[in-house]
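From the shared-data thread, chain only:
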Amino acid sequence: MVKVDFAINKKLEILVDEKYYNTNIQDLTEEYIAISIPINAGQYVPLSKGTIMDIIYYEEENLYKFKSSVIGRKFENIPILLISKPKEIIKIQRRKYVRVPLLKATKYKNLKNQPNINPKTIEKSEFLRAVLVDLSGGGMKVRVSEEIKMNDFILLDLVVNEEDIIIVGQAKRIQKDDEGRFVCGLSFEFVDSPTRERIIKYTFQLMREQMKKI
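Structure, as tokens:
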């Protein structure tokens, strides 16, 4: 089994009825992990003794998934839920940014060596079609029909939770697939912190949805 050093105050997410609830570790013993009552958008989830749950544990750059069950409750200034220690743990990620595979239509314009072009000056007709192959907080992989050269700057129009995000990536890896299309690994450039956080939040959302199928 993967070894994990659980620590007090570390974040957990608990999947109940297709929805994730946030909590954190309040105490640790040989018999159980004590957590705060899981909450989502101000709503606490009712969990009875014996309930079995899928849980994600956040540890720095790594994520872990395991199953646990409710074994009791107690009250120490706040209500505490006692859950069993996992018998098996799956390691999910070991990177600075979680990279999530997906297939999603997007639009782009090759800026070549002019990354500072104002996106507002670009007509919609200038954007070309692309397929988003994977996404992370640090970059993405896209598949396009037109040639892109190494170090070209690519302006992308991403739709994240029904909102448009305009972002620039620089081509760091390029290869052709069996159909002659260009698969390009892009590193995000000139990305402000709020935009990067929105993308990171979106990748975790995608990852959680995919993990439900594991």
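Helices lie at 193-211.
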